[in-house]
Design a protein that fits this description.
By secondary structure, this protein is α+β, with helices and mostly antiparallel strands. The chain contains 3 helices and 8 strands.
């Protein structure tokens, strides 16, 4: 099998870049998607990783690229979070119908009903398995973070 490590610079309108991993690389056949913003801030993560037909998305926040966390609370944050998930799924050639598991992390479980109302708008009535819980704090003081697993 071909050994490829893929990194695309997607934020701030930067051009995409591609590198090839050496054949001895233990990450052979695993693809990574990250952004220049994450690299510049030295965050040790990729937006998604693909391995053997599975796509693992990092936790997504309601961040608008180049602008930061969207304002307005749980509903607009959930909407933007789901748009970011769909954007990254599309880069892997997938849609929300490929999602098999999501984990929702909320800053306050009191936001759970409003989160659910917005979340369900991003599916066609068939939902992936899901876990939801409250965390003591999220990056950038976000109200919600969602990570997902998809199957090609």
């Amino acid at each position: 099998m071909k050994h490829i490590l893929l990194a695309s610079c997607i934020a701030l309108s930067l051009a995409a870049c591609q590198t090839t991993a050496p054949p001895s690389d233990p990450a052979a056949n695993i693809h990574f998607e990250t952004s220049a913003v994450l690299k510049e801030q030295d965050f040790p993560l990729s937006y998604f990783t693909e391995a053997d037909g599975w796509v693992f998305l990092s936790g997504m926040l309601g961040i608008v690229h180049g602008k930061g966390l969207i304002e307005g609370g749980i509903t607009p944050e959930t909407r933007q979070t789901m748009e970011n998930i769909k954007e990254n799924l599309a880069k892997a050639g997938l849609t929300t119908s490929n999602l098999v598991k999501c984990t929702a992390i909320l800053a306050d479980m009191k936001d759970w009903p409003a989160f659910n109302e917005e979340y369900k708008k991003h599916f066609n009535g068939t939902y992936p398995a899901r876990t939801a819980f409250q965390a003591a704090g999220l990056a950038f003081n976000a109200r919600v973070e969602v990570e997902c697993i998809a199957k090609k």
